[in-house]
Amino acid sequence: MNEAVADPIVVGIVEAVTARLDGLVAAMAERIVTEIEYYRNADVQPRDLHTSLHGNTRFTLAHLAAGDVPLDLSAPTATGRLRAGQGVPLPEVLRAYRLGFTTLWEHLLAEADRSGPSAQGALLRAATSIWEASDTYSQALTAAYRDAVAERLLETDRRRSALVAALVDGPPPGDDTAWEIAQLLDFPYQGTFLVVNAEAAGGAAPLPGLEARCRALEVGSAWRAQPGNELGVLSCPGRRAVELVLETVRACATGRVGVSPAFERLDQTPRALRYAQVALESLPAGSVTVRQLDDTPLTEMVMTNLETTRRAVNRILGGLLSLPEDDRTTLLATARAWLEANGSAAEAARQLFCHQNTVRYRMHRIEEHLRGPLDNPKIVAELAMALDAVGTFPTLLEARRAPEAEAIAGLRS
């Protein structure tokens, strides 16, 4: 602010306008409400608007009369934070601010016109400083608004993260916490939900852009970041949307992602999380893959104790698991086809595009590694269970110890 602003003539103009401050503020408010539709419909009460305009205008006039002193930015800072809390869009807030300054300038100019040419000249010399003050106020308002929005978003993220943690940890039996959390997350308590467990490798976002895509699909989401992974609970608009959501997750994934089966009540989230965790752990390390487990009795049994299932699979399949990978893969695929064909070598051969004698030969090799002959229904049932288990959890075939597999191969009933 230069010394011209402190010119006694300008001070006289400012004092005259200040004496009519209430009328000036009323004119500002009327103009803002008339020209900005948002202020007519938003949750900004007339008294609130008048208070804000009064404070900002009073500080501006005081600054013009004081001369070369720093601007007091407390009023625009308070307005910025207040409007951010009310959810008024920043462009509308700045537009209202410009209209207020424009109205102030018009009243200053009208007072100068009444006072004569010397007053007009003095005010024009101060014009640059007046609009510099307007810019400074706008910058302070914008910074305060953005700080308030950032704080609110951070607090919202923290609150939603805490709510997700409460969901996955599970409330006590008979507790209404899940219902209350649903209200706070703006989720239904009963609906169609998924739990997503995404591996965060190297600090990178595991599912960049997923939240925005979910909003476009009208899918609600809440997330909790943890060391090495991110957990999300998704609220889908019906079961038909689940496959579309899975496609969206696949499009965003940057690493391994496990997805639970769809479930219907938020108090089932802890169980769904277990499915999502196991689905992720069943994927090859370093892969970019999304896997959703089915909610089947076998899946639930395996999840209850994966190591026990691993030992059972090793015992059932025996030395078959110690064969070279290509040979083992071929034999396991043949066994699956044979079971799906209800023990028909001819039908299995059609599925595998080979001769039925080839199927019989392979099944004979498999039988040598089992705990008994394939004409024993118990052995067939064990084989079917083991194949389903390794099909659902390929990691059951990993980390085998050759001596253990060889020892188990000798255990036959």
CATH class descriptor name of the largest domain: Mainly Alpha
- Gyration radius, in Å: 36 Å
Low-confidence stretches: 1-5, 401-413
Distance between the termini: 98 Å
What is the CATH architecture term of the largest domain?
Orthogonal Bundle
Major sheet summary line:
6 strands, mixed
Overall shape: it is rod-shaped
Sequence of secondary-structure elements: HHHHHHHHEHEEHEEHEHHHHHHH
- The chain-level structural class is alpha+beta
CATH topology of the largest domain: Globin-like
Mean pLDDT: 84
Question: Layout of helices and strands, plus pairs?
Answer:
Layout: H1 8-19, H2 21-35, H3 37-41, H4 46-66, H5 74-86, H6 90-115, H7 117-169, H8 177-185, E1 190-199, H9 210-216, E2 220-226, E3 229-236, H10 242-252, E4 257-259, E5 263-265, H11 269-281, E6 290-292, H12 297-304, H13 306-317, H14 325-340, H15 345-352, H16 356-369, H17 377-392, H18 402-409
Parallel strand pairs: 4-6
Antiparallel strand pairs: 1-3, 1-4, 1-5, 2-3
